[in-house]
Design a protein that fits this description.
alpha/beta, TIM Barrel, eight-stranded parallel sheet, two-stranded antiparallel ribbon, 40% helix, Aldolase_TIM, metal ion binding
Length: 302
């Protein structure tokens, strides 16, 4: 087992704000490259309305293609019961269910209040038997419309969901990228202390203000060992104005390797995949490691 797990969310969170449609074959080629480099957990896409997020219109094909890759563990994001049923019918066995703490963001994202989302999730529970779950707690730290989110509000939502599925993994999401390391450390520690029966915790950050890696380290210091990252630093929530890309997977992999912590990722194999993703038309790549490694002599490339 690696010391930390990086979940590759580029094919979903990284691709979803890109305007020009990325050919399905290109998406699958990048996913295949990620898996070959050691990124076995892949957030391959989302089952959402094609009118709301056109880039995710090929979710069924992407799921089928990723399931065919040896060693791949594709997880598919779903915002409600209708799309969860679509994903399960298409063969998904690992879902990412997203609910926002912020009512304004949840309504803007899926046209439901958080309470209505919880009720819908509760009603669907019998159909989720045997399905692995990541519960993404969006706007856990900050809302693009109302600002900083009170920690007690995040804890209340996690508590409702953890009572229903304590076996799920819970992802604390810095949707806007406005969280800071102290905020991340405090909330992560409070969640882990308040809900000891929860099977696992993850952190999903954005690098909007350049604090992505610092926030990952704060979450790590609080005991979290699963982190979302996007190849080439692509991404940004379409429903969070101003939120830019995720932490670049290659940056997080390099940082942990430099610290002597294993991720199971071959950075040499990942780098050309990241460079390919950075060239996608319409994307806004981020991160530093690609350029830093390209500028170094070959014998110093690591």
């Amino acid at each position: 087992m690696p010391d930390v797990t990086l979940v590759e969310v580029g094919p979903r969170d990284g691709f979803q704000p890109i305007g020009p449609f990325i050919p399905t074959a290109e998406k699958l080629a990048i996913i295949q490259g990620c898996v070959a480099a050691g990124l076995t957990r892949i957030e391959a896409g989302a089952f959402v309305g094609a009118s709301a997020v056109p880039q995710m219109a090929d979710a069924e094909a992407i799921l089928a293609g990723t399931l065919a890759l040896p060693g791949a563990d594709p997880q598919m994001l779903v915002p409600n019961a209708r799309h969860a049923r679509r994903a399960i019918a298409a063969g998904a066995r690992h879902l990412v269910w997203v609910i926002s703490v912020s009512e304004a963001h949840n309504r803007g994202n899926i046209r439901l209040s958080p309470a209505e989302s919880v009720a819908e999730f509760t009603a669907l529970l019998p159909e989720l038997e045997g399905i692995r779950l990541r519960m993404n707690i969006a706007t856990a730290f900050d809302c693009p419309f109302t600002g900083r989110v009170a920690p007690e509000d995040t804890l209340a939502l996690v508590g409702q969901l953890a009572a229903l599925r304590p076996d799920a993994e819970y992802g604390l999401c810095d949707t806007t990228g406005r969280a800071d390391p102290a905020h991340v450390a405090e909330l992560a520690a409070a969640c882990r202390a308040s809900f000891p029966r929860v099977a696992g915790w993850a952190f999903h950050g954005h690098d909007t203000y350049g604090l992505g890696l610092a926030n990952i380290m704060a979450a790590h210091g609080a005991g979290i060992r699963v982190f979302d990252a996007a190849i080439a630093g692509l991404g940004g929530c379409p429903f969070a104005p101003g939120a830019t890309g995720n932490v670049a997977t290659e940056d997080a992999a390099w940082m942990f390797a430099r610290m002597g912590l294993s991720t199971g990722i071959d950075l040499g194999a990942l780098r050309p995949v990241a460079e390919r993703a950075a060239r996608i038309p319409g994307g806004s790549p981020g991160g530093r490691v690609r350029q830093a490694l390209a500028a170094r002599p070959a014998h110093l490339a690591a």
